[in-house]
Design a protein that fits this description.
The complex is a heterodimer.
Chain A lengths: L6 E6 L13 H25 L3 E4 L11 H12 L4 E4 L12 H8 L10 E3 L6 E4 L2 E6 L24 E7 L19 H4 L4 E5 L5 E4 L2 E3 L15 E7 L6 E6 L4 E8 L3 H14 L5 E12 H18 L2 E12 L2 H8 L3 H13 L6 H16 L5
Parallel strand pairs in A: 1-2, 2-3, 3-4, 6-7, 7-8, 8-10, 13-14, 14-15
Antiparallel strand pairs in A: 1-11, 5-6, 9-10, 11-12
Chain B lengths: L2 E9 L8 E3 L6 E5 L6 H13 L7 H6 L9 E8 L2 E8 L5 E6 L2 E4 H12 L16 H6 E2 L12 H15 L6 H17 L8 H49 L1 H145 L4 H24 L1 E5 L6 E3 L2 E2 L3 E5 L3 E5 L2 E5 L3 H24 L4 H28 L12 H10 L14 H62 L6 H28 L2 H40 L3 H62 L3 E5 L5 E6 L2 E4 L5 H21 L5 E5 L7 H15 L3 E6 L2 H4 L5 E3 L1 E3 L7
Parallel strand pairs in B: 3-19, 3-20, 8-18, 18-19
Antiparallel strand pairs in B: 1-2, 1-4, 2-21, 4-5, 5-6, 6-7, 9-12, 10-11, 10-13, 13-14, 15-16, 16-17
Classes of the chains: A alpha/beta, B alpha+beta.
InterPro entries (chain B): AAA_GajA/Old/RecF-like, P-loop_NTPase
Keywords (chain B): Coiled coil
Protein name (chain B): AAA family ATPase
Chain lengths: ~375, ~900
C-alpha cells in the first residue's frame, strides 16, 4: 500500500505447469514446458518493476493434481527468487486435498526448511490480511468438480478493519461460458454482492473483463490454439472507494495462431503466406492453419509443396488442416495422362471415385493427387 | 469358313506299316475310341505332317516318321472340305517325297502345292524348318491338341497373336503403357511396398505406426490405471475419514448410554424381584416342611401304636408255646451239666497221669545225660593231660638237629681242637706274681697269674716299660683258633647248644619224643569217642567245643530213678475213664440240643416280638416327647394354612420376577456393549486403514502420476493421429496401386476381351462366378473368383487342362467367325478331370461341335462311349480305297 492508498497487485492465473504437450515433438515439448516456467520469472520481474509486493495466482497453477517433482521444484524455486509474495489458490486442475499436491508443494517451499517462505498456499477459505487493512478472500477448490459456487462465502466473510477487500477465485462466470460448463460457476456480480474492491479470477485462459472490478487474467503463457487474448498478466491498482486500474502486460513467449484461409490458387496462397510472415515472429509462432477451397490439382500440389518445403520450416510448429482444400484435376491434367493409356484409365477411375458419394472418395482424391505428383515428377526421375 | 476332315489314310508311318484308314468323319463331334498303343497319337502326328510339314524336309522329325528299322516312304492321304469344297492332300516323305493337293477343279504338286495348302489353312510357310514346335503349326496347331499338350495353358504362337491382334486392334484402340507407365507404376509399387506386403497385408511403416499407437495406448492405459489407483486411494481415504467421523459420532451418541442406564436400573429391580422370589420360595419350602414334619409325626405315632399292639399279640402267643417246651429243656440242661462235670474230672485225671509220665521220662533222660556229661568231662581232663604231653613231646622232637647240620658242627669242633693245639705249641708263657699294683699290661693294671702271650704286649712296671713280642706264628695260630671258635660257637648258638656233646644228647632226646608223639595221638583219639546222648561227635575238637558250651553251673544230678511202667499204666486208666465220661456227656448234649432246636424259633419269635414291642413302646414314648405332640392337631392345621399362604406369596413373587427378566435385560445391555465395542473396533480399523492409505498416497502421490498420465494420454493421442495419417497414406497408395493394376488388367482385358467374352459363357459353367484375365501375349493368366485372383500356373492340372480346352474352343470360335478354317482335335483329353467336370466339358465340346468339326481321340471307352456323336474306328485298308 503506497502512501496514496493505492494497492498494487499482479493478478495472474492458469499457469498449467507440467502440461505435457504430448502431441508435439520432444524438443518443442521441452521448449513449451520451459516457457511456462519462464513466465513465472517474467511475472516476478514485472512485480519488482512495477512495485507490486503481491502476486495473486487465481488457480490452476499446476496442470494436474499430481505433477512431477521437477515441476513443483521449478515452480517454487522460480517464485522464491523474486522479492514479492506469491498467493497461490488451488483451482480445479490442482484442487486442494489432504495428502495431495499442495502438501508436496508446501514441503518444497522455504517453510519446510524453516525459513519464511514468500509463497502462501490458500488451501482453505480463510481471509488473509495482506497488509494493514487489505484483506484477501480466497475461494480455493477442493475437488476436481465443484458444483457449488466457491465465492458464495465471500458475502458473509468478515474482514475486521478492512479498507480493501480483494477476492481470489477460480471458475467460470455463470452464463458466461458458451460451452455450457456447470462446474464452480461464479455469478457475474459477486464483487458487488460481497463488497469486493477487486475479484481476481482464473479459469478462462485469456484476459477478460467481466466488470470494472471483476477480471480474468488468463494464462501468462498460451497453451493451446484458441482465439483469446492469452499470454498476459494484469497489473492491478486498487484504491479504496474507486474502481481499480487494470493494466495488461505481455508475459508469454510463444504465439499460438489460428488461421483459416480460403485459397483459390497457389499465387493467392503465396501472398497470404507472405503477409502472415511479415506480421509474426515466425520462430516463436505455432500456427494452426486450415485451408479450404477448390483449386486445380496442380495448384494444390504447388501449395502443399510450398508449405512442406518452406512454411513449416519457418514456423516453430505448423498444424496444417488441408482436407478441405479440394484439388480438382483439370481437363489438362487428365488429358496429359490420357495419352499414357493405362495411366489415363487409372486417373479417370480415381477422378470418378473422388467425385462420387462413396466413403473412399476422399482417399481417391488423394490417390489421384499422388498419381499426378508422381507423373509430374518425370523431370526429377 | 468350315474345315472338315473326312478321311485319313496312313501308310508306312511309324507304327502303321500297313495302310490304316479312318473314314466317315463328319461335321460335328467325331469320337474315336481305341485302346492305348492303338496309334491315336500317331494319327494326329500324321495329320500334322500332312498339313504342316514340308514334303521334302529331311529332318529329325520327318525321319522319325518311318517305321523303326524300315527304309520305306511314309505316306499320308487326307480328304477334307473347306466350305463344302472337297479337297485332297497326299504327301510322301523321305523316299521320293511328293505332295499333291487336289480339288475337283485343280491339282497342284510340289512347292506350289505346299503354298496352296498354306493359303487354304493360314499356317506359316516354313513350318518344316522348326518342325516339332507346335507353335509353328498355325491356327490348327493351336486347335489340334496333342496328348498332354493341353496341360499347360500356353500362349498361342506369334502368328496367331498377330492374326488376333490385327483382328482386334481396331476394337481395342489402346495400347499398354509406355515408359511413363513403367516409371509411375514402379514408384507406386515401391511406395506400396513401404506399407503393404505383396498379398496386401500390413507391413513396414503401417505396422510400425500401428505398433507405436498400440504401445502408446498400453502405456497410457497403464499410467491411467496407476493414477486411478492413486485416485482410488484418495477416494478411499476420504470415505474412511467420513466413516470414522460417523463411527466416532456413534460412540459419542447418548441414546445407547441412556438406554443402558435404564436397563441397569431395570436390572436392579429384576435382581430385587429375584431376591424376593428366592425368599418366598424358601418361605414356602419352610411352611411346607413344617406341615410335612407334623403330618409325619402323626403318621409315625400311629404306625408305632399299631406296631406295639401287633408285637404284644405275637409275644403272648410265643410265650404260651414256649412254656410247654421249657421244662424239658431245663432237665436236659441239668443233665448235661452233670455229664460235663464228670467229663471235666476225667479229663483232669487223664491230664495228670500224662503229666506224670512225661515227667518220669524227662527225669530218666536227664539222668542219662548227666552221666554222659560227667564221662565227657573226665575224658576232657584226660585229653588235656595228653595234649600237654603231646605238646611237650612235639616241642622236644622239634629240637632235632638235622644230620648235615650236625656234621658241620662236628667239623667246626674238630677245627677248634686243631687250632688249640697249634696255639699251645707256639705261645709264650708269662707268669706274674707278687705285688702287681705297679704293673700294667698295655696300660691296664695287671693281676698276678700266668699269661700266654701270642701277640705284642707292653708291660710297665713303674716307669719301666717291657715290650714282649711273641713269634709271628703264635699270633697267627691264635687268630685261627679264635676264628675256629667263633665259627663253632656260631654253629652251636644256631642250634641253641653250648657244646657238641649237648647237641648229640639233645638229638637223642628228640628222636624219643617223636616216637612218643605218635603214641599220644593214638591215645587222644581213643579218649574222644562220639556220644549219641550228648549228640557229640568224635574227635578232640568236638569234645572241647562241647565242654566249652556247657553251662557253668553244675546241675544237680537226679536223685531217684522214676518208675516208668507204673506211670504208663496210670495213664491208660485215666484215658479209659475219660472216654466213658465223654460218651455220656455227648449223649446228654445231644438231647439238650434237640430240645433247644425245638425251642429256638419259639424263643426267637418271642425275642422278636419282645424287641418289636420295646421298639414300638420306645418310639411312642419318644414321639410323645415331641414338643408339638400335645398340640399336634392344632399345629397341623396352622401349618397347612401357612403353607397355602406361602404358596400364594411365591406365585406373586414369581410373577414379579418374570416381568423383569434379568437375562433379557443382560442381553440388551450386552447388545449395547457389543455395539459400542464394534464401533470402537470400527474406529480402530478405520484408523489403521487411513494410516495405510495415507502411506500409499504419500509414496505414490509424489511420483507425478497425473502429469505422467496426461503426458501418456497425449502421446497416445498423437500416435493415434500418426497412425491415422499413416493409414490414410497407406490407403491412398493402396487405392492408387490397385487402381493402376485394375486399369492395366482392363486394358489387357480389352485387348483379349473378345476371347474372354467368348470364354465367359463356358468358364461360368465350369467355375461359376469367375472371371479371366489374359496376359499381354494372350496367355490365360489369372482366374478371378470373387475377390480372389489366382495365377493359372497354381491351378490344378485338371483345371488347367480344362481351361486350355475352353481357351482353344474360344479361339477357334473367334477365328471361325473371322472366316478362318478351324477344326478341333483333342487327343486323349480330360484325363485329369473328375466325373462332374468331365461331363461338363463333354457337353461344352459337344456344343462346340455344333459350330465346327471336333475329332476326339480317346482310350477311355467308359468315359466317352455314351457321348452322342459320330463314333468312328481305325480300319486296316487292304485295298486301295476309292472316293
Amino acid at each position: 500500500m503506497t502512501d496514496s492508498g493505492v494497492m498494487k497487485l499482479i493478478h495472474t492465473a492458469d499457469w498449467q505447469l507440467g502440461k505435457p504437450y504430448g502431441r508435439f515433438t520432444p524438443d518443442l515439448r521441452a521448449a513449451l514446458t520451459d516457457a511456462r516456467f519462464e513466465a513465472i520469472d517474467t511475472i516476478g520481474r514485472a512485480a519488482t518493476e512495477h512495485g507490486a509486493r503481491h502476486v495473486l495466482v487465481a488457480g490452476d497453477i499446476f496442470d494436474t493434481e499430481g505433477p512431477e517433482d521437477r515441476t513443483i521444484v521449478q515452480a517454487v524455486t522460480r517464485m522464491e527468487r523474486h522479492p514479492c509474495r506469491w498467493w497461490l489458490l488451488p483451482g480445479n486442475h490442482d484442487f486442494a486435498r489432504n495428502g495431495g499436491l499442495w502438501d508436496r508443494v508446501r514441503a518444497k517451499t522455504g517453510t519446510a526448511t524453516g525459513t519464511d517462505s514468500k509463497i502462501t498456499i490458500l488451501a482453505t477459505a480463510e481471509p488473509h490480511e495482506l497488509e494493514d487493512g487489505v484483506w484477501l478472500l480466497p475461494a480455493p477448490l477442493t475437488h476436481r468438480h465443484n458444483l457449488d459456487d466457491p465465492t458464495e462465502a465471500f458475502d458473509t466473510t468478515e474482514t475486521p478493519g478492512a479498507r480493501l477487500r480483494i477476492g481470489l477465485a477460480h471458475g467460470s462466470i455463470r452464463n458466461f461460458s458458451s460451452h455450457g460448463e456447470t462446474n464452480n460457476q461464479i455469478p457475474p456480480d459477486r464483487a458487488r454482492r460481497a463488497n469486493l474492491d477487486y475479484l481476481a479470477l482464473g479459469d478462462w485462459h485469456g484476459v477478460l473483463r467481466i466488470d470494472a472490478r471483476t477480471w480474468y487474467a488468463g494464462t501468462p503463457e498460451t497453451d493451446r490454439f484458441q482465439n483469446n487474448d492469452s499470454g498476459h498478466a494484469l497489473l492491478v491498482d486498487v484504491t479504496p472507494g474507486a474502481e481499480p486500474d487494470i493494466t495488461s502486460f505481455r508475459t508469454g513467449r510463444f504465439h499460438w495462431l489460428i488461421r483459416d484461409w480460403t485459397v483459390s490458387d497457389a499465387a493467392a496462397f503465396s501472398a497470404d503466406c507472405a503477409a502472415l510472415l511479415a506480421e509474426i515472429n515466425a520462430p516463436d509462432t505455432l500456427l494452426q492453419l486450415t485451408l479450404a477451397g477448390i483449386t486445380d490439382l496442380s495448384d494444390r500440389v504447388a501449395i502443399l509443396t510450398q508449405i512442406e518445403s518452406d512454411l513449416v520450416h519457418r514456423l516453430r510448429f505448423l498444424d496444417l488442416r488441408a482436407d478441405d482444400l479440394v484439388g480438382r484435376p483439370t481437363e489438362n491434367d487428365l488429358a496429359s495422362l490420357d495419352v499414357e493409356g493405362t495411366l489415363g484409365i487409372a486417373a479417370h477411375k480415381l477422378n470418378a471415385l473422388s467425385q462420387s458419394d462413396r466413403p473412399e472418395a476422399r482417399i481417391a482424391r488423394r490417390a489421384l493427387e499422388r498419381l499426378l505428383v508422381e507423373y509430374n515428377r518425370e523431370d526429377q526421375a | 469358313m468350315t474345315l472338315r476332315i473326312c478321311r485319313i489314310t496312313v501308310e508306312n508311318f511309324r507304327k502303321f506299316r500297313d495302310p490304316v484308314t479312318i473314314d466317315g468323319l463328319t461335321d460335328g463331334l467325331n469320337i474315336l475310341i481305341e485302346p492305348n498303343e492303338a496309334g491315336k497319337s500317331t494319327l494326329l502326328e500324321a495329320l500334322r505332317a500332312a498339313f504342316f510339314i514340308h514334303y521334302n524336309a529331311n529332318t529329325k522329325t520327318t525321319k522319325s516318321y518311318a517305321p523303326h528299322g524300315d527304309k520305306v516312304a511314309p505316306k499320308i492321304n487326307v480328304d477334307f472340305t473347306i466350305d463344302n469344297a472337297p479337297w485332297s492332300i497326299t504327301k510322301r516323305f523321305l523316299k521320293n517325297p511328293s505332295i499333291e493337293v487336289t480339288n475337283p477343279h485343280s491339282r497342284a504338286q510340289g512347292t506350289g502345292a505346299e503354298e496352296r495348302l498354306h493359303e487354304l489353312l493360314g499356317s506359316t510357310k516354313d513350318a518344316g524348318k522348326k518342325s516339332g514346335d507346335t507353335n509353328s503349326y498355325g491356327i490348327l496347331g493351336l486347335l489340334w491338341i496333342g496328348q498332354t499338350e493341353a496341360l499347360s495353358v500356353s500362349a498361342p504362337d506369334l502368328v496367331i497373336r498377330e492374326t488376333v491382334s490385327s483382328i482386334l486392334e481396331a476394337e481395342v484402340g489402346a495400347v499398354l503403357g509406355g515408359p511413363a507407365w513403367k516409371r509411375v507404376h514402379d514408384r507406386i509399387e515401391d511406395q506400396y511396398g513401404q506399407f503393404w506386403t505383396a498379398t496386401g497385408k500390413e507391413k513396414g511403416r503401417l505396422t510400425e505406426a500401428r505398433k507405436a499407437a498400440e504401445d502408446a495406448q498400453t502405456t497410457a492405459a497403464e499410467a491411467k490405471a496407476r493414477l486411478q489407483a492413486l485416485e482410488d486411494s484418495f477416494f478411499d481415504l476420504e470415505q474412511a475419514r467420513t466413516r470414522l467421523k460417523l463411527a466416532r459420532r456413534d460412540i459419542a451418541d447418548e441414546t445407547d448410554i441412556q438406554a443402558r442406564k435404564t436397563l441397569e436400573k431395570d436390572l436392579e429391580t429384576a435382581r430385587a424381584a429375584a431376591q424376593i422370589l428366592a425368599t418366598r420360595r424358601a418361605e414356602k419350602e419352610a411352611a411346607t416342611g413344617t406341615e410335612k414334619a407334623l403330618t409325619d409325626l402323626r403318621t409315625r405315632h400311629q404306625t408305632a401304636f399299631t406296631a406295639r399292639e401287633a408285637a404284644e399279640a405275637v409275644l403272648t402267643k410265643a410265650r404260651d408255646r414256649r412254656r410247654t417246651v421249657a421244662a424239658d429243656v431245663i432237665a436236659a440242661r441239668e443233665k448235661s451239666v452233670r455229664t460235663a462235670e464228670t467229663l471235666e474230672q476225667a479229663r483232669l485225671a487223664q491230664r495228670q497221669a500224662r503229666a506224670a509220665l512225661t515227667e518220669g521220662k524227662n527225669r530218666h533222660d536227664a539222668l542219662r545225660r548227666h552221666k554222659a556229661i560227667a564221662a565227657a568231662k573226665t575224658r576232657f581232663t584226660d585229653l588235656a593231660k595228653l595234649e600237654q604231653q603231646l605238646q611237650q613231646a612235639t616241642a622236644l622232637s622239634r629240637t632235632l638237629i638235622p644230620p648235615d647240620a650236625l656234621a658241620t658242627l662236628i667239623k667246626h669242633d674238630k677245627k677248634v681242637t686243631e687250632a688249640e693245639i697249634r696255639v699251645t705249641v707256639g705261645a709264650t708263657l708269662l707268669t706274674l706274681s707278687g705285688d702287681t699294683s705297679a704293673v700294667t699290661f698295655d696300660g691296664q693294671p695287671a693281676t698276678p697269674g700266668e699269661y700266654s702271650l701270642t701277640r705284642d704286649i707292653t708291660i710297665r712296671v713303674g716307669d719301666t716299660e717291657l715290650r714282649l713280642r711273641p713269634p709271628a706264628s703264635a699270633a697267627s695260630a691264635e687268630q685261627d683258633l679264635s676264628e675256629a671258635r667263633r665259627k663253632r660257637d656260631q654253629a652251636l648258638e644256631d642250634f641253641g647248644v653250648s657244646t657238641l656233646t649237648e647237641a648229640r644228647l639233645r638229638n637223642d632226646r628228640a628222636h624219643e619224643a617223636a616216637a612218643e608223639c605218635r603214641t599220644l595221638a593214638a591215645r587222644i583219639d581213643a579218649a574222644t569217642p562220639a556220644d549219641d546222648i550228648l549228640n557229640l561227635k568224635s574227635g578232640p575238637q568236638a569234645l572241647k567245643a562241647f565242654i566249652a558250651g556247657l553251662p557253668a553251673e553244675n546241675t544237680v544230678p537226679p536223685t531217684e530213678t522214676p518208675d516208668l511202667p507204673a506211670l504208663s499204666k496210670a495213664v491208660e486208666q485215666a484215658d479209659s475213664a475219660f472216654s466213658q465220661a465223654d460218651g455220656a456227656h455227648q449223649s446228654a448234649m445231644e438231647a439238650l440240643r434237640r430240645l433247644e432246636t425245638e425251642d429256638a424259633p419259639l424263643a426267637a419269635a418271642e425275642a422278636g416280638a419282645q424287641s418289636d414291642l420295646s421298639n414300638a413302646t420306645a418310639q411312642i414314648s419318644e414321639l410323645e416327647k415331641h414338643p408339638d405332640f400335645p398340640t399336634l392337631t392344632e399345629a397341623l392345621a396352622q401349618a397347612g394354612k401357612r403353607a397355602a399362604e406361602a404358596a400364594t406369596a411365591l406365585e406373586e413373587a414369581t410373577r414379579n420376577a418374570t416381568v423383569h427378566d434379568q437375562d433379557t435385560i443382560l442381553r440388551k445391555i450386552a447388545t449395547i456393549d457389543a455395539r459400542a465395542r464394534t464401533a470402537q473396533e470400527t474406529c480402530r480399523r478405520l484408523e489403521t486403514e487411513i494410516a495405510k492409505l495415507e502411506g500409499t498416497i504419500e509414496s505414490e502421490g509424489g511420483k507425478g502420476l497425473a502429469e505422467r498420465e496426461a503426458a501418456a494420454r497425449e502421446a497416445a493421442e498423437a500416435s493415434e493421429a500418426t497412425l491415422h495419417r499413416v493409414t490414410e497414406d497407406a490407403e491412398t497408395i493402396r487405392l492408387l496401386r490397385n487402381t493402376l493394376e485394375e486399369s492395366r488388367r482392363e486394358t489387357s482385358a480389352r485387348f483379349t476381351g473378345p476371347v474372354a467374352e467368348r470364354m465367359k459363357r463356358t468358364i461360368n459353367r465350369l467355375m461359376p462366378g469367375s472371371d479371366l484375365s489374359f496376359s499381354e501375349d494372350l496367355a490365360l493368366e489369372t482366374i478371378v473368383r470373387g475377390d480372389m485372383t489366382e495365377d493359372c500356373a497354381t491351378l490344378s492340372r485338371g483345371t488347367q487342362e480344362q481351361l486350355a480346352i475352353l481357351t482353344r474352343i474360344a479361339f477357334a470360335d473367334m477365328l471361325r467367325e473371322q472366316g478362318l478354317p478351324v477344326s478341333l482335335i483333342l487327343d486323349d483329353p480330360l484325363v485329369y478331370s473328375d466325373d462332374g467336370r468331365l461331363e461338363l466339358l463333354t457337353d461344352i465340346i459337344s456344343d462346340a461341335a455344333k459350330r465346327m468339326q471336333v475329332i476326339l481321340l480317346t482310350c477311355r471307352d467308359r468315359a466317352f462311349r455314351h457321348v452322342t456323336g459320330n463314333h468312328v474306328s481305325l480300319s486296316i485298308a487292304h485295298s486301295e480305297t476309292t472316293h
